[in-house]
Specification:
Radius of gyration: 21 Å
Oligomer: single chain
Strand content: 25-35%
Number of helices: 12
Helix content: 10-25%
Amino acid sequence: MNGLNMKTVWRSLLLFAWGMCVSVATLSATQTKAPEALRGADQDFDQWLMTDQGQKASLAQMRQRCERVLDAAKHLNCSVSVIARMFEDKAANQLPDYFLSIKRQHALAIAANPELNVLFSMFGSQSLAILRAADDFVVRKTARREVLRIHPYASDFFVAEEVLPFIDVEAANGHSARFILDTGAPQTRVNYDTAKLMGITLLSDSHYAYSTFYGESDLTARLGILESIKVGSSEFDHVLVFVSDRDNLLGLDLISKLGRLKISRKTLEINPAPAARCESPIVYSRVDINQRLVIAARLDNRTTQAIVDTGNVDYLTSALPGDQVNVVKTLTPGSSPLNPADKQRYQTFKGVLNLPGHSLAITYKYYPGFTIPPSWVLGRYVPSILLGWRAFDDFELNLDVEAGRSCFNKV
């Protein structure tokens, strides 16, 4: 998120570059096949993963299901999904042996595929040794109601043009830092300076590539393990995180494990009373490492999905332009390199957003080179949109992943 609009999402090798990964596009292709074409344990892993049972499956259940896949290419595919779930579940100490086993079993296929070569070279020997020796990831949630302040800036001494939701996160060694409360980031990220102050164990020979929603690509990060971090009274021990030179992000991987939440413009409430109403139901979806909060929506009569993204400074950002009302800088979509420091590189449009229970006339932005992948809704590809932090002037988020009752309600 360095720069005001550079929203980083961990659509990295696990989605963009890993050609064997279960991506939105892969899933859409499976949905076009007749059910009889998906019979057999070696054919239905991807489809099973998107069922309610697959979404709630444990890591052990995923591994068992993948072991039943007989076709070599499909087994490699589902193995990548298992590795992705290990990242999501913070199962650092399970990664090395499984990672090396798959690398040996599919050595020829990996050697023949440059993208898979990059994937299976992401850990050096030092990293694998550190991961293997790591303690189990532990979540200790508070049972009491807490109201945590949301800060508009990274520090009280810094004022930016744009406001984002920062919360205080404390490490085991007592060092505290502000992290962006980012429901649009599937994975938690720590910048190098904060990681050093918080006493992170850095996997110095790890290499992780990722892209952003705003057209950046070939960015790199490393991984590390934090002994313990606290959000309010809730604590996460032995946390596998990504480390880069960008801003600190508390991603959906940890936000979703805090329990029932209410996020409003000024506060993060932990263990609030259950929401009395649910105007726009939210689906918590998991596609490998990419968790998302999604609302069925329509923008300018186009059926789409809206991803609730508190780390995006805009009210709404669209993957496709609408009827243009103000060209801040004219660009050919997809053809111009984006400069994070250049805040002029977007186009502004007026439109009508329809959410379940609400219809709003809004102004939204389109960034040429925008990289939200297409979503599959009602049998056809449609653009995705991001509902950003400015939308919280009008809405609040009631998040209850475990109960499956998450809602976007008008304030």
